Amino acid sequence: MRIARFTTGDSPRYGILEDGSTDIVVLKGDPLFMPVNATGERVDLDSVRLLSPVIPRSKVVGVGRNYAAHAAEMGNEVPELPLLFLKPNTAVTGPDDPIVVPDYADEVEHEAELAVVVSRMAKNVPADKAADYVLGYTVANDVTARAAQRADVTWTRGKAFDTSCPTGPFLSVGLDVSDLAVRAWVDGELRQDGRTSQMVHTVPELLAYASTIFTLLPGDIILTGTPAGVGPVRPGQRVEVEVEGIGRFGNNVVKR
Ligand code: MG
Question: What is the pLDDT of residue 66?
């Protein structure tokens, strides 16, 4: 089952998209915070504008160098413990929203990633219980201002700017994410083509580790790292990202 957050011109609404259907079953309220309850209305997927499936109340947790081939292409070792960073919720944007390159960044790079959406408060959760805290999965682009990331000790300028976390197109519930394709395209050319089975630290390990540092709240997003093949996407170009079984979406890159 996939959940869509969408607009038809008014306030965002939520709906369920059953496998193989192009009809969105509209829900009452936000399924993150209330029981799933249909309004009786259906809308055609083609008639709506999809939005980011979730806007975190507090944070997006990122993880660096979680695919060995990507760490190697950047000239880095794989860290023994997950290398975590934060993006604020203002970084999150949706399908077809522009990625706005900050003035200080000459270019940005794409990073296609599987993203985990947290279902309930999590603190000091053991890895073997982590699945109980996962609402579902979506697709994210961990857009990175690479030169700023290299220049600074922290990754805040490089990773946390507004629009640096396009997310979509759906929230997939009940998906087995142990071996899914993760891909990115720039102007239709395939740039990244990895698999989630290549992660160094698994989804349960990442959630458990993050929860030893801070409390995860409902709607928080955990990024899981990017496979090899990252590279620049320039103003005027379009970048698309996909995780098998969830969906594919794109964003145009613009200069502020
Ligand atoms: Mg990343």
Answer: 97
